[in-house]
Amino acid sequence: MKLTAQCFRPPNLTRAVLQLTLTCLILMQRVLKAWELLEVKSVLRDKIPVVRRFSGGGTVIVDHGTVFVSFVCNKDSVPSLQPYPQPIMAWSSLLYDQVFHGAGDFKLRENDYVFGNRKFGGNAQSIIKNRWIHHTSFLWDYDEINMAYLKVPARAPKYRMERNHSEFICRVKDFLPRSAFIEGIIKAAGTHFSLRFVPWDAIELSAAANFMPSSRMLTRQELKAAIDAEPESLLSQSM
């Protein structure tokens, strides 16, 4: 998230950013309270980092099995594309249809990427006057134990149909080899952009000088306060 946010700042270059993570952490959406989204006591007990994200999008737990892909673009980077949430989402689904063609029943459903009716990719966006980000967290793999840190959100997509996490999500690795997945993303991006590979440290150095991060990690005090703020009726349900 930090690197993607850095790329969103000047200089205004178009970038496709592919990242992996080695750390288990929770990316939490901006507007809701922690107790609405997380099993906060378990998160505190197991010392799981929680980062409030700068972009839109839902709350997810990520680890070494998550693949992040972000498109950081100027408003005119994609010809004829209107820089608004739904047109960008529709454009992205056409791009990823090239990646997953023949691998499964790939669809865009209510802003999620799915195979059939099971989610494997969650999306987040940030749009300003002349620039936008489309960011995806792909579940290449995941540890089912980690899903217990997340509550089923009150505002879940209709197609979820109140399914628990294990029945709602799936793994990309069950449909596509990792090498084909990564190579497919690069190839699909190359049909829309002229690609030039840039080392991570070069991106960080060019963006770091004037960078003020807008994502931030929640403190233990903030998480403890979230427990105190949780309505008693919900506390009794979780006990």
TrEMBL record:
It comes from the Eukaryota. It holds the Pfam family LplA-B_cat. InterPro entries: aa-tRNA-synth_II/BPL/LPL, BPL_LPL_catalytic, Lipoate-ligase_2_inactive. Residues 11-201 form the BPL/LPL catalytic domain. Transmembrane segments: none annotated. This is BPL/LPL catalytic domain-containing protein.
